[in-house]
Every structure is written in structure tokens, then in C-alpha cells.
Amino acid sequence: MAQAEKKGGLLRKSSASRKPLKEKVVLMYDEIFMTEDPSKCNPRFWEELFLMKVNLEYLEGKLEALDGEELMKIKDNINCLFQHCIQALGEEHPIRVVNALQVPC
């Protein structure tokens, strides 16, 4: 798959008949940027997140796009992200450790 097609977390550009296809990790990042706790519907949310390759470009873009008011609305989710990131650093699973190290702190 060409790199240009993956820009912004999209695996496929949208066409008239198809919705754009997003990476699963991007969909999970989008859940973090909602006001509800992402692990409420999926208790394994944080475990799954750190098993996936980080899309740093997308995550940094989402964080930079927030203004102060938006950030305060999702403060709890952002704090959970960094808390689980720190916990993942102490795990024995090397993929989780490497992916947790890549999350911008």
C-alpha cells in the first residue's frame, strides 16, 4: 500500500460509493478524543491499543488541534492515555513497551 494512501490514518481514500477506511489504531485514537471513557464499552481497550503500531502523525495532529476548552472536556481520557502508557512501559511484552514509548508525552 502506498504511503500517500495512509496519510492521516486513512487506508483508503473515499469514493462516491465507499466510505474512507481508517486504521484501527486511528479509530481508537478517535475514541480517546470523545468525552466518554473509551474502556467503558471495551474493557480491553488499553491492552489492545498498545499492541498496535502507533500512528504518531495522526495522534500529534489530534492533540495539536485541541483548544483549551476541548482539552478540558477530554482531560480524563488524556490522563488515562498517559497513565496506561506508563503502565505499559513496565510490562514484559516488548511490543507494548515500544508502542508506549512512542506516545508523545
TrEMBL record:
Gene that encodes it: Armh3
Organism in which the protein naturally occurs: Eubucco bourcierii (red-headed barbet)
Protein name per Swiss-Prot or TrEMBL: ARMD3 protein
Transmembrane segments: none
GO cellular component: cytosol
